[in-house]
Amino acid sequence: MEKVIAVLMRTDSNDEWCARQRGPVAEALLNLGIPGLSVNVRDDAVRHSLMTLTTMDPPVAAVVSLWTQQCYGDQTAAALTLLGAECEQLAAYLVTESVPLAAPATEPGCRTTGLANIALLRRPADLDQATWLTRWQRDHTSVAIATQSTFGYTQNWVVRTLTPGGDHRSEGVLRCRRRQRSA
What's 74's DSSP letter? Predict the structure, then answer.
C-alpha cells in the first residue's frame, strides 16, 4: 500500500467548494476504488484560526490523502485528474507515513475534533538529510506532542513528486490539536 498526498491550491475556497470536496469529490474518489481517503479542507470553521498560516500563492485550500496500491497506476492518475479539476494548482507527492500518535477515529464524512493543522515544510539547505530527519522525527516530535495540546500526529516524508512542476517538499505533518477558544 502506498500513500499519496495531493495539495489543492486555490484562491477562493468558500464553504460551498469545501463541502463539494468532502461530499461529491470524496465520493467520486472512493468510486475509483481508492482503499483509503482523508480530506482536509480550509473551511469557515478553521479559516481564521491563529494556526492558519500560508506562504503559497495560491494558498492551500485542501490536502487530500489517498491510500492506493500503485502511485503510478490508472487509479491514482484518475484521482489526480479529478482533483486537478477542482483547483488552480495541484501538487501530489508519494510519501512514507509514520504515526507517532494516532488521532481518534472519526466517522466517514465527519470532521475531526479540534483543528487538523497541516504543515508543509522543506529541509533547510544547510542541513543534510540525516540531521534533518533526526531533528524532526527524534527531537521535535516528542516536544510537539507534549506541549501543543496534540491528540494526533502523522508525519509524511516525501519520497518523490508525482505532478509536473511540483516543488519538492521534504515533509508534511498532520497535527490534530484542540482548538483554542478566545475569551
Answer: H
Phi, psi (degrees; rounded to nearest 5) at 93: -135, 140
Instruction: Summarize pLDDT for 133-147 with one digit per residue, the tens.
Output: 888 888 888 888 888
CA distance 101 to 120: 18
Q: What is the pTM of this model?
A: 0.87
Instruction: Work out the burial of residue 66: count CB atoms within 10 Å of its CB; fewer than 13 is exposed, 13-18 middle, 19 or more buried.
Output: buried
Cβ contacts of 41 within 8 Å, gap of 6 or more:
13, 18, 21, 22, 61, 62
79 close to 154: Cβ distance less than 8 angstroms = no
* The three three-digit cell numbers of residue 150, written as one number: 496534540
Least confident of 24-38, 46-60, 69-83: 46-60
Report which of 167, 151, 46 is spatially closest to residue 105, judged by C-alpha positions: 151
Buried b or exposed e, range 135-174, using 16+ CB within 10 angstroms: ebeeeebeebbeeeebbbbbbbbbeeebeeebeebbbbbb
